[in-house]
Structure formats: C-alpha cells, structure tokens
Amino acid sequence: MTSENDDMGLAMSSISMFNKSSNTSDSFFSSCWDPIVSQSGSLGGSSMASHYHLVMENQGISGTSHVSHYQSDPSFVELVSKLTGFDGGNLSQMVGPFSLPQCNQVANRRCPPNFTLNTEGGNERGSTNSLRFLDEHRISKEALVGTSPNGKIRKCAPESGSPLRSCKNGDEEPVMDLSSEGCDGPREQARKKPETEQNTGANSRGKQAVKQDKDSSQSEEAPKENYIHVRARRGQATNSHSLAERVRREKISERMRLLQELVPGCNKITGKAVMLDEIINYVQSLQQQVEFLSMKLATVNPEINLDLDRILSKDILHQRSGSAAVLGLGPGSNSPYGFSPSTFPGTISGIPNKNPQFPPLPQTVLENELLNLFQMGFSGSTMDGFGLNGQLKPEM
Amino acid sequence: MDLHNLNPSSLKSRFTTRFLRALTEINARKPIASSSSPREIFQRYRRIKDAADTSMAYSVRSRRTWSKATLWRLRTPSHRRRLASFGRRSSLNKTRTTTTASHRGAVVVQITSRGGGLGVQLEELRELVPGGEAMDLCNLLDETAHYIKCLTTQVQVMRTIANLYSLE
C-alpha cells in the first residue's frame, strides 16, 4: 500500500503537465475535475477519476502531501491489474468495458487532458498502463467529439523504427524491454513534438503544444503489435485514406533517398522524376557493363591456367582500382559511370585479336567492333544491352 | 569496399566463387581456338553472361523477386515463358497493365499511367529490373536498390577477372 503510494507520489511529482504559471488553470482544473470526483463512478471509474483528480490537484499544489489523502483504492489496484491484462491491445477493446462519461465531459470542456505521465519505480507497468490507457481513451474521445483536428489510423506495417523508445528526459525511466521491435502502438498517441517519426508523423497538436514541450515521455514500450498508429499533423486532413496515403508517400520517399545514396552523383537532385531518370540510366549502364565484360571474358583466352586457389585470393577481391586504372577504365575517367562507349570509330576489323594485352585505346575500338558486329550479324537472340537506347549510339 | 571483403560469406565472395567455377567450366568445355568464328564467340559470350547472372542470382542469400525472376527467365525456354507470363501478368495487373505480345518472346507490358506523371519512368524501371512488372512502386524501389547493389558487385568482380586474364 505504502509502496504504491510512494510510487504514485513519485509519479505525481515528476509530472510536468500544465502551465504552472497560470493559476487560473489550476482553479479551472479543480473545478473541472470536481464533478468527476463527486461522482461515484462504477467499476473502477471512481478510482480512475480519483486518479485524475489526484494528478490535477498535484499540479495546483505541487506537493506530495495530498497524495496521502487518497489511499490507494483497492479498486484502483484491480483496475491496474485489469489493464495490465489488456497488454496494450486494441484501444476499442479497452474503451469498451470502461465507459467513462466523465472523460467525455472532460474532453468537451476542452481541458487539456493530454498529460503523459512519467512513472518510475517498481510498479511502473501497471500504473503506466492505466495512465496510458486513460490518455488513449481521452484522446480517442477527443477525436470522436472532434475537438482537435487530429485523427489516428492504424496501419499494418512491421516497421521497426523506435526512437520513441529512447525518450528519456534524464529521468531514470527504464525502458520496458518488451522487445517490441514492431510498431509502437498506443504509445504513439501520446507523443510529443520533439519526436518526429517517419512512421507516425509528427505530433504537433495545437492546444497541447506548450504542454508537450514540458511533458516527459512515457517509458513504457507498447507490446508488440502489427500496426502503426499514425497521427495526423496539424492542419492536415484526418481522413483515413489521406493518412494512409501519407504513410505510403513517406515510405516511397525514404526508399528514394536510399537509392539516391546508391547512385553516384545524385546528391543534388531533388524530385522524383529526375531521380528516376538517373536511376534508370544507372541500371542500364550497369547492365551494359555486365554484358561488355562478359563479352570481353569470352574473347580473352586464359592461356595461363588460373587455379581457383590463387584466384580466390585477395587479388580478385581487392583489385578494384589498380588494374582498372591501368587500363583506363577507372571510375570517373569518362562518364560518371566509369564506362562510356562514347566514341565509335565504326570500323570493323578482324575480330577478336587474340592478343591478350589490350592497350586502352583499342579496347574501346574492340568493344565497338564487337557491338557493331553482333548487332549486324547475329539476330538470334535479344541483346538487351546493345539496343539503341541510353548511351549507346551506334553508328552503322 | 576494397578492404573489407575478406568476409568469406559476403555477397562478393560468394559471387566470385560461383562465377569462377562457371567460367572454368565454360573454358574447359570449349577452349578458344585461334580461329573461332564470331558465332562461337557470341555463344560463349551468351553463356558467360548467363553464368554471371545465374551465379549472381544464386548468391543472393535472401530471396528476392529479381533473383527469382532472373533464374526463371534463364531456365524456362522462351515459348513457355511467353505463355506463362501472359497469364501471370494479366492476372496480377488487371487494373493497370495491358500486355501485348512482341517479337522473340519479349513481352512488353504497357502500364497505363497512374499516379502523377511518373508512369513512363516507372514502366522503364519495371522493364529493367527483372521481375519488376508485378510490383507496386514501394517494393519496386526496394528491389531496385538491392539490384543495383548486386549489379555493382557483379561488375567489379567481372572487371577484375577480365583484367587478370588480359594482363597475363
């Protein structure tokens, strides 16, 4: 009992919820919450309401002395145990058995109820669960009554972004390692401004903006879920379709960024269309390089038997710029892709000279000759890389 | 990338071993005579290219759509491939693609433009990346990234091998 009180006390004292400067808000809160306290709720509603009141009062008084007024209700303990059993699952499931008209009332009164409670100590899980549940419930009610322009959807996506987990504002909040590499579930709904998640979108709520700055994040991990809670940004449509669209677009832009890193020389390019053009060119050039190299391998006669042992040595795995530079095929020598069949003498001499040593210039000549020959002579198969596209401009 | 590929199980080394094995096998089968006709050279080239693609697709540890598509393309003969791809593509992309047959077994997929002006490029990308016809943009970009990575590895290894051969 006392331990629980202590926990609650600690929790309350570490909460920085509302504008402490405004006294009016305190009185407002107290008046706001009075009807809740006065009502004797059913099924643990009273305990929750009293918990609310507990929190509110603490703000006005900023002392833990009043915590002692509220003995920990046995119903509250029951509530906590009940809520832990829910495991942070579906919000509607949690909302269902706990119909709290008080919360609705609160929401309607535009009390800034978005306090995310910091909990420390041993009984965190239970208390945070309950508190978070309250938070969620309240927020859901908000959304329902439309007091805030925010909405939330759930998306199925096993994303593993979890910087939200690392919200420790210096407090000793041990992150509950429920190993939720999956989506961060209901915890998302109580996120604050400093966290801008790609998965979830930024949470900047208008009314609670100031409070969110002072809020400390929750420490608890959502249990592993298969969906992402996304919150709409301020001023954006809360239609579920548009939210889904936004998530999808963010995914696509993230992938485009990855591709930008892969393709050389694309740092300054902004815009999907140009980026896609570059990507297409690069893939085409890579495929052409493969074809050219395989043709070169076809013509070169390995007179010296290279056994596998020597081949698998470091020579092959590490020779990248050495010999390539010798042969003038180093990257950046001609085109940004390191390979530019740009000059086409167009003359066809005897093909493949068995001279195993190819000086740099005749190499391009050889390649061109081979290309021309194959294009003209062999029509039996598709020659993808040597088509009349991209950089190859054969002059026939 | 030069120095930390001693990892025996990296993509590069896996590809290298496979490809070299295939190369030696091809060379052993039909050694280059001094009077090889261009046709023979061409056949050799085709075999080497297929060997390179196959070994690359096999070396991909995690199953990827493009690797599966490459292997499938190299295995099934063209006529069967055409029939299969008709059914596959039409069933998968009913809403946005129409398949038209073209010559020599290459099926051209025409994608009706959807989603803001990127249609032509998307179609090109789909054609480039093997197996990319039946994927949405998000997955397609993913596959493209992986495909680019593997292609660069392939080019590096083949270039080094060619240089080794030609320098001796």
UniProtKB/TrEMBL annotation, chain B:
GO MF term list: protein dimerization activity; transcription cis-regulatory region binding
Annotated IBH1-like N-terminal domain ranges read 9-75
Tell me which stretches of the chain form a coiled coil.
Answer: none
- Which SUPFAM superfamilies does the record cross-reference, listed alphabetically? HLH, helix-loop-helix DNA-binding domain
Q: What is its main location?
A: nucleus
Give any single GO term for biological process.
regulation of DNA-templated transcription
Q: Where in the cell is it found?
A: Nucleus
Q: Tell me which Pfam families the record gives.
A: IBH1_N
Assigned GO CC terms: nucleus
In Swiss-Prot or TrEMBL terms, this protein is called IBH1-like N-terminal domain-containing protein
Q: Which organism is it from?
A: Hibiscus syriacus
